[in-house]
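ok here's VWFD domain-containing protein:
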Amino acid sequence: MRVATWPTPRGRWASTWWWSPARASSSSGTRGPPCSSSWLPPTRWAASLPALSSLSSPGRPTPHPLPQCLQDKPLPSSSPFLESWDACLLQGTVCGLCGNFDDRSSNDFTTRDHMVVSSELDFGNSWKEAPTCPDVSANPEPCSLNPHRRSWAEKQCSILKSSVFSICHSKVDPTPFYEACVHDSCSCDTGGDCECFCSAVASYAQECTKAEACVFWRTPDLCPVFCDYYNPPHECEWHYEPCGNRSFETCRTINGIHSNISVSYLEGEQGGPGAGDDSG
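and the structure:
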């Protein structure tokens, strides 16, 4: 993978190239075969809102035309934030330790030799960089390594099977998420509880949202969003929502073109009309 960045008058752009069989030999080095079957143009775009605005403005030079699949992507609410949209460009073109990005979890354990295996050890060992590096032969259970955290992890993660998520249980099976939650929570030390436990619960909540089962699970005592829980009601423009508004401005909106688009509900801070202009 090669990443190139360059400045533009109003922002920064980055693009990524993936090698193809025609351009890279699968036997060279230890990086394994490429993931794509043909040479791809720049396949990753990242830009701030000003850069997107300049891209869509007539008469302004751009490094590349805006990819079609990005034209209906939501714009960030305020320019200081960097947005990265990979789904429509990278889906189905990658492979490795992070999976295939093809919406099929059943083939995530695909080895360097394109074999789907069930063992995480076989999968991980196949992607090692140096052939001289010995294979990992055992994967210690985190709760066995940190037995003092097991009871805490099981108790905390039980929220996934509790009435809090009851409207989602029939749509998304909580069992694998519970097991992953306990695993991750045992893996963290006392300084990483929020990163591990809360991230695990948020993963299940996200799948519930995709299944049209919105769960307001965060509280001041459980993975709180401090920036909103202590905001006075009706006095602040931005408020936390577990399943936010699905109405967004897109790149086409800048040019007066309105499209009927479908996007997932988003967790986060939501504002009323004009909130996107608030820099505070």
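+1. Residues 53 and 59 are 12 Å apart (CA to CA).
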